[in-house]
Amino acid sequence: MDKYIIYGLYCPFTNKLHYVGKSSHGMTRPLQHLNKSHSEKIGEWVIQLKFIGYKPIVKILEECNENNVDEKEKIWIQKAIDEGQYLLNITHNNTLTILKQKEYENEDTDILIIGKTIKDARVNLGFTQNNLSEMAGIDRSTLYRIERGNKQITIKNLKEILRVLDYELIIKSKNTNETNTIS
Q: How many CB atoms within 10 Å of residue 25?
């Protein structure tokens, strides 16, 4: 027997709902969005998320039956709209607006400076992101996020990138001028 559900696709950064759909085959249809969506807008959003190393979160909103699945989908869409959710179901909404919200972006200027410094050094040396990530032994998507100022940078990844770029990380005491180099 087929399982009818209403499902939602949520942003991995903001946990906001961006798509409401229905399925007569349980999780089969919702999970298809993560590879090749039947919706062009959802497909574009998923590709953009994958580019930076993420994917939408799929949640079952409600189990239904064949007789009420269409009505339940409409109810969930209206509920999301009433709550101010930005749905890609709606014709005039597009993925660029979601990405422009950038609620997930980092405002930590120190991390942004590190990311910009790495990117500038990479470009000055004529390296592509692929070149640098291979030489540092990290994923290209990780390097992309670091260059964009992602807070989730590890010291290990940072050290490998700086090693390849011939940079070093120095910690300096304000009081004693003592320095320590992390290598």
A: 12
